[in-house]
Write a structure and sequence with these properties.
alpha+beta; 4-stranded antiparallel sheet; 11 strands; globular
């Protein structure tokens, strides 16, 4: 009797472990990754986004530019040049706006459209990294404190409200 209970327990346990070891179904099948751009002169890609026009944008901190990547050919071109183009993270707003963080410059930049001027939404934010839009077009960014001892915590989240 004990052997049957132990066998049933071990069978159940092994089924549970086997079930945990499988990948959850996402409803989407992804194929093998494919190289879009061969090793190039990007000098590092730190942020990626697809804008409202379907353009793949690649941000580079070291290259100090945002590049447009042609997904068919793999060709790249400078989309926003240095120094304004330095981009660690790139976010696309709900109406196609473009915002990006300039990590080394400590600046959050924003452009409403391709023909609009680039605006500085926030500055003096050393190490500014990620950002996100909400549906109201507010931009959220983490802000690192220059001294965790002085601030008590090392990072806070900042909202830049749409005027």
């Amino acid at each position: 009797m004990c052997n049957r209970i132990a066998s049933a327990f071990l069978f159940g346990l092994s089924s549970l472990v086997a079930g945990c070891a499988t990948s959850p179904s996402t409803g989407h099948d992804y194929g093998k990754p494919e190289v879009l751009v061969a090793p190039s002169n990007f000098k590092g890609v730190h942020g990626l986004a697809v804008d409202a026009k379907g353009r793949l944008l690649a941000g580079s901190v070291i290259g100090s530019a945002i590049y447009e990547v042609d997904r068919s050919s793999g060709n790249t071109s400078v989309f926003i040049p240095a120094p304004e183009g330095q981009a660690d993270d790139i976010a696309i707003g709900p109406k196609g706006e473009l915002a990006w963080t300039s990590f080394l410059q400590g600046v959050l930049r924003y452009r409403e459209s391709d023909s609009a001027p680039i605006k500085v939404l926030a500055k003096d934010l050393p190490g500014i990294n990620s950002l996100a839009f909400d549906q109201k077009m507010d931009v959220f960014t983490p802000r690192r404190c220059s001294s965790a001892m002085r601030c008590g915590r090392s990072t806070s989240v900042v909202r830049n409200r749409r005027a």
